[in-house]
Design brief:
With 245 residues, this protein is mainly α. It has a single domain, classed as Orthogonal Bundle (Helix Hairpins), CATH 1.10.287. The chain is 75% helix and 5% strand. The protein has helices at 3-28, 32-83, 89-131, 135-188, 210-218, and strands at residues 193-197, 200-201, 223-224, 231-233. α1 packs antiparallel against α4 and α2 runs antiparallel to α3. The chain is rod-shaped, with a radius of gyration of 39 Å. The chain starts with a helix and ends in a 12-residue tail after the last strand.
Amino acid sequence: MDTRSKLQYFATLQKLLDLRRQARQQLEKLPDELLSLNQRYAERRRLLQAKEEELARLRQEQAGLEGELETLKREREHFRRQKSMVTNMRQLQAVVNELDQVEGEIKKREERLLAIWQQVEGLEEEVNNLSKESEEERLHREALEAAFAKQKQQVEKELERIEAHLRQTQRLLGTAGWEEFKKLWATRKPTAVVPMDGDSCSACHAQLRPSLVQLVKASAELAFCDSCRRLLYDRETIKPLELEA
């Protein structure tokens, strides 16, 4: 195989590998709008979780306070009965003091319970709103997901076509040529074969020696950039093979 033909196959393989990498990236990367939507949903789920945790904490505190309140109310009834049974002022004062203390504790817990009930009511509404997806949101999400699924199908089909052309080009190049390309590509992947850009390397943009420019244009032997060591070809004379439809 002459150098010109080898360069054409090498340039074709590089082009196919670039197309394959781009296709794989398309499969892995969500469209910006769908990515943004997913990020909003993730933030919404994070906020929902935080609200649910706060709600659970308040309900636990509420249950504890209600239990304490029941105990204090029983104590109040006990002291009220004692009050009616005292026989002197000293006993009466002692019972009244105990009763006042219990009433104070009951009031504190009732005030806290009222505050908790108000917080719980507000949080329950927030949790309910965060848990629901509106009809408009659902339709928008489903439309974006359907569009992405269709795009993935198209890209997967294109990827199959690229892989088939890679195998075909590999066969045409032959075992020795393919092994030579693999060694070359392994040292500079993902881009090992590049066209000249005027009198510069299109990869590293280093200016090429005049003699190297002539060597690349002649396509009589493989020529490499002195700076990045990538294989160079002249895009005017070496055309990568086109993919068949």
